[in-house]
Amino acid sequence: MSKSPQWRKIKKSEIAGTEAILRSHERRCMNACSRYLSRTAKDNVWTLHGAGGDICALIIYARQSLLPVLCGQKVISAPRFLQGFFGTVPVHSVQGLKEDSVILEAALETTGLFAV
């Protein structure tokens, strides 16, 4: 039985590929995407990898908000890492495309987390 994909902090070697993903979504949902990566990449960007190892979704923490870029994913594994994160920094909102935000909020709720 294969293990479901898990969220993890972005690795330095993934920044260029992640920026390419964000640039491809820039007109639709992620203005000034390189700004998020250059300021926050090591500590505030998490990636989800698909079966082939490619990045299939991102969560970015910026300005007290979570910004999901789910790249068409309709279901994501619960981002359990956020349980510790919510206890140390304020998360006031989930922002982004409506469908991405709804999916992330539903995943957060399964772990008992809510933006305040």
Descriptive report:
- By secondary structure, the protein is an alpha+beta fold.
- It has one domain.
- The chain has four helices and five strands.
- The protein has a five-stranded mixed sheet with strand order 1-2-3-4-5.
- A hairpin with a 2-residue loop joins strand 3 and strand 4.
- Helix 1 crosses helix 2.
- The termini are far apart.
- The model has no long low-confidence stretch (mean pLDDT 80).
Structure in a nutshell:
The chain is an alpha+beta fold and 116 residues long. The protein has four helices and five strands, in the order βααβββαβα. The longest helix is centred in the last third of the chain and has 13 residues, at 98-110.
The backbone outline, from C-alpha atoms, is: globular
Q: Give average pLDDT, whole number.
A: 80
Low-confidence stretches: none
| Main sheet record | 5 strands, mixed
Q: Helix and strand string, N-terminal first?
A: EHHEEEHEH
| Beta content | 15-25%
Counting H and I runs of at least 4 residues, what is the number of helices? 4
Number of domains: 1
Annotation, overall tally of beta strands: 5
| Helix fraction by DSSP (H/I, runs of at least 4) | 25-40%
Round the Cα radius of gyration to an integer and report it. 13 Å
| Secondary-structure-derived class | alpha+beta
Quote the distance from N terminus to C terminus.
37 Å
Side-by-side strand order of the widest sheet: 1-2-3-4-5
